[in-house]
Amino acid sequence: MDPPAHVVSNSNKISKVARVFMEQSRRENIVDFTLSAEQLKLQERAAEAGRALRGRSAEWDRSNKVPYPEVVEHVREHGLLALTMPTEYGGQGLTAMDYLITVEAMFRNSQFWAIGEPLFATAGPGPSMVMMAESQATRDKFLPDLVAGTKQCAIALTEPDYGSDLTSLITTAERSGDGYVLNGKKTYVTGATVNQLYAVFVRFDDIPGHRGIGAIIIEEDMPGVTIEAGPEFMGCRGIPHGDLTLSNVHVPAENLIRGPGSFGDLMTAFNMERLHNCAFNLGMAGAAYDEAEKFVRERIAFGRPVAEFQSVYHALVDMWTDLEALRLMARNAAASAIDGNYPKALETTAAKLYGARVASQITLKALELHGGYGATTDYAIERIHRDVVATIVAGGTPPVLRNAIAAYILPGVNVSQRSGRDSKKAATV
Ligand SMILES: Cc1cc2nc3c(=O)[nH]c(=O)nc-3n(C[C@H](O)[C@H](O)[C@H](O)COP(=O)(O)OP(=O)(O)OC[C@H]3O[C@@H](n4cnc5c(N)ncnc54)[C@H](O)[C@@H]3O)c2cc1C
User: Fold this and answer.
1) For the residues 392-415, what does the mean pLDDT come to?
2) Whether residue 405 is found in the same domain as residue 270
3) Strand-pair partners of 300
4) Contact criterion met (CB below 8 Å) for 200 and 248
5) Residue that finishes a domain, picked among 148, 178, 211
6) pLDDT in tens, 108-157
7) What spacing in Å lies between the alpha carbon of 151 and ligand 1's midpoint?
8) Mutation choice for ligand 1 from 195, 237, 389, 397, CB with most ligand atoms inside 8 A
9) Residue nearest to atom 39 of ligand 1 (CA)
10) Structural domain includes residue 19
11) 169: closest CA among 217, 129, 201?
């Protein structure tokens, strides 16, 4: 039987008419999130890829060392690289929804953050910014390697003195002949030492505020580029979140993504970061639920499985309910990516904000349900919890996300964090 006209599925092949209906349905909150047969197969492939590496997660976390090329190869063998990259460059041409369900399944089954990195670095915000490059020559130069996974792209926005206050960043790009000379330092760059390309936010020609910001691709072997591992992290270990120092780095014009005045456009590609963050929260909180359910079914106290105590099964119900709500918000965000555009800022930011909150609540509750065992490294839950907590601020701290959402939902109210020149556009990372 055909679905009712107001309900449209998220098939990869949707007609123009269906797209219009989808947009209308989305606005009325009646989008049908039923996965297509192809999406279910993709999800199972990602789950399989994650499950196969789960047994190694504890050691990779403990040693703080992931054999990353092996992980990339594993993800490639499962056909999960360059999911959203265009088919004309050899990418899979899939949707943001496909990306979301793949990444969620990968994290839920691997129970470890680093296994999702090859997907992130070949289809997430870095590659999405390369796709935004003004010049065809830039896309032709970088996309074939990105799609093949032979080069992967990290994203470098944060500086030692400017994180949330991103529009004050001080890494400079000065014009020099046909190209640019870059100076400055980026920090917390995820995958700093395992990627080969970096989409770097820079200030052009000393133009102040957001108006001076654009982005340039840095290659790891350019003279003047120093890459360091950075501090040891409590969670999300095994691949560094490191530093990128740029000292008089000469960059050819063809590495330009966008020049000054493109901060807003670049942030739309950044919505892929927040969608990834949300998929991560969903997958890892799902893994915490799985571990907690398994434990309370097996653990006996007072002569019965602890799952039979009302406060325990109510806790599971609350965790399950929060997961369902988060999945709906995440899919709503992914469904806002229509006609090849990136997911919309409001939906994605709200999903990321909600995800960071409920995922850390779920993992903490799951840890508590393990009793004393939850605090030991014998059980996966403590690692899952650390990974989730470590990412709360990645992609934007909760207050900064709230500021961004307030700007959408409270028109006419001055929610700017800044009183000076740039007050109309506060930083929103
Ligand atoms: C695991 C991890 C991975 C990361 N990966 C990357 C990456 O790949 N690339 C990259 O560029 N960056 C990355 N980051 C950096 C991340 O984006 C920043 O840490 C984040 O944006 C916050 O910036 P900050 O650390 O400078 O904190 P600050 O901006 O100094 O914030 C400190 C505190 O002040 C609060 N605060 C600041 N401004 C306001 C305000 N206006 N209103 C209310 N409260 C405010 C914050 O919420 C926070 O609690 C990563 C971080 C982590 C932890």
Assistant:
1) 96
2) yes
3) 305
4) no
5) 148
6) 999 999 999 999 999 999 999 999 999 999 999 999 999 999 999 999 99
7) 27
8) 397
9) 400
10) no
11) 201
304-356 pLDDT, tens digit each: 999 999 999 999 999 999 999 999 999 999 999 987 789 999 999 999 999 99
> How many angstroms does the Cα of residue 57 sit away from the middle of ligand 1?
26
Domain that holds residue 383: 264-409
pTM for the model stands at 0.91
**Please, which residues have CB within 8 angstroms of residue 412's CB and are 6 or more apart in sequence?**
none
* Residue nearest atom 22 of ligand 1, based on CA coordinates: 163
Same domain, 49 and 160: no
CA–CA separation, 281 vs 322, rounded Å?
11
Give the confidence band of 21 by pLDDT, cuts at 50, 70, 90.
Answer: low
Q: Which atom belonging to ligand 1 lies closest to the Cα atom of 186? A: 11
pLDDT of 24 > 90? The answer is no
Q: Is 163 touching ligand 1 by the criterion CB < 6 Å? A: yes
Does residue 255 sit in the same domain as residue 268? Answer: no
Judge if 138 and 251 occupy the same domain: no
Query: Residue 36: CB partners within 8 Å, gap ≥ 6?
Result: 9, 10, 11, 12
pLDDT at 407: 95
C-alpha of residue 11 to centroid of ligand 1, in Å: 36
Q: Pick from 241, 393, 402 the residue to mutate for probing ligand 1's pocket: most ligand atoms within 8 Å of its CB.
A: 393
Decide: 90 and 148 in contact? Cβ < 8 Å. yes
